[in-house]
Amino acid sequence: MHQEAWNEELQALREEALESLRLSVDEASLEAWRVRYFGKKSQLTAWSRQLGGMDPEERRAVGQQLNAVREVLESGYKGQLEEVRAQAIRHQLAAETLDVTLPGRARRVGTLHPTTRTIEEIEAVFLALGFTIAEGMEVETDEYNFEMLNVPKDHPARDMQDTFYLTDELLLRTHTSPMQVRVMKQIGPNQPLKVIVPGRVYRRDEDDATHSHAFAQIEGLVVGEGVRMSDLKGTLEAFAKALFGQQQSIRLRPSFFPFTEPSVEVDVRCIQCQGTGCRVCKDTGWIEILGAGMVHPHVLEAAGYDARRFSGFAFGMGPERVAMLKYGIPDIRLLYQNDLRFLTQFRRVLS
Ligand code: FA5
């Protein structure tokens, strides 16, 4: 090959190698590049071997050019390797950067739902009065939900408590009252008892500001010898004062439940207007919180008690309605929607 031809070949190799070097941006491809251009099978090595067969003048000229190209490529390689390594370190540092000046991320702490909290407050009041707590099943029999409570199949009182039926005999309970007979059967016959029963109940009620088709109730039952209406009144008055404050008073209005006789609705003084009359109490100054009465002798007998010796009182309240009153909640549906804008307002009130 002539001197000029050598020159062209070497320059072409140099350009190709430098271009390929520029594209080698990690250590693995740089290593592949090194093997390709400096390894035993590389063009440069092959050409170096040919130098031995040249005459001295040509050998020196070609040798010099070969060395010059080799030096350019070597220093290019070193420079690129340094750059690639520095780049890798820069990436690692960026990924591991810890900004110690950033404020910590606040953990969102949940609180009890206002209904749960109200049920617990009511339970605490009755526990302090010597009651125990029992729980029943949400799926009940027609017998316990209605018949043993003096509500036979054709009784008009069933219309007020229509429910979801699983079979002709099994239904979703419409109130916690079936637990009256179950508790008496469990503890009795003819044993005194004081118990409350919190739980979920179901009705075919249209959902509106004060009604839900699934809601909570708390049943209360006291049975003993000589239990009187005044005991009912005193217990519920103590309860109302404990929950709403010592200034609170209650009012009993005659009412009807097939399983109590006499029956009453119990009102508390309107929390909103303190009794002067407002929109919440519909200008009456009072708000109804529960139904109650003296346990009907038929119910005592259905549970195996001697109704001539034993008497009792019972009540059933809606804790969602109590929560609405206590915290000024205008619509019961707010309690079921899981809207954090609503629920987080109770963080301070309740904690
Ligand atoms: C009863 O359910 C009777 N079992 C209460 C009772 C027990 C009377 C023991 C006598 C002796 P009533 O249907 O009125 O009664 O319901 C009782 C309470 O449950 C109501 O005062 C109200 O606070 C609540 N309540 C009733 N229906 C709904 C509803 N659809 N949504 C939310 N709360 C309700």
Number of helical segments?
Answer: 12
Looking at the structure, what is the overall shape? Answer: rod-shaped
Instruction: Name the CATH superfamily assignment of the largest domain.
Output: Bira Bifunctional Protein, Domain 2
Number of strands: 9
User: Which small compounds were modeled alongside the protein?
Assistant: adenosine-5'-[phenylalaninyl-phosphate]
The helix/strand class is alpha+beta
Tally of structural domains? 2
Give the DSSP E fraction (strand runs of 2 or more residues): 15-25%
Which range best describes the helical content: under 10%, 10-25%, 25-40%, 40-55%, 55-70% or over 70%? 40-55%
CATH architecture of the largest domain: 2-Layer Sandwich
Radius of gyration: 44 Å
Strand order of the main beta sheet, please? 1-4-5-9-8-7-6
Q: Which fold does the CATH topology of the largest domain refer to?
A: BirA Bifunctional Protein, domain 2
Average pLDDT number: 91
* Cα distance spanning the termini: 95 Å
Q: How would you spell out the order of helices and strands?
A: HHHHHEEHEHEEHEEEHEHHH
CATH class category of the largest domain: Alpha Beta
List low-confidence stretches: none
Largest sheet: 7 strands, mixed
SSE layout and pairing:
Elements: H1 3-23, H2 27-38, H3 43-50, H4 56-96, H5 114-128, E1 132-133, E2 139-141, H6 142-145, E3 170-172, H7 178-187, E4 193-202, E5 214-225, H8 229-244, E6 250-257, E7 260-269, E8 286-295, H9 297-302, E9 310-317, H10 319-327, H11 340-343, H12 346-350
Parallel strand pairs: 1-4
Antiparallel strand pairs: 2-3, 4-5, 5-9, 6-7, 7-8, 8-9
Bound molecules: adenosine-5'-[phenylalaninyl-phosphate].
Adenosine-5'-[phenylalaninyl-phosphate] binds next to strand 5, strand 8, strand 9 and helix 10.
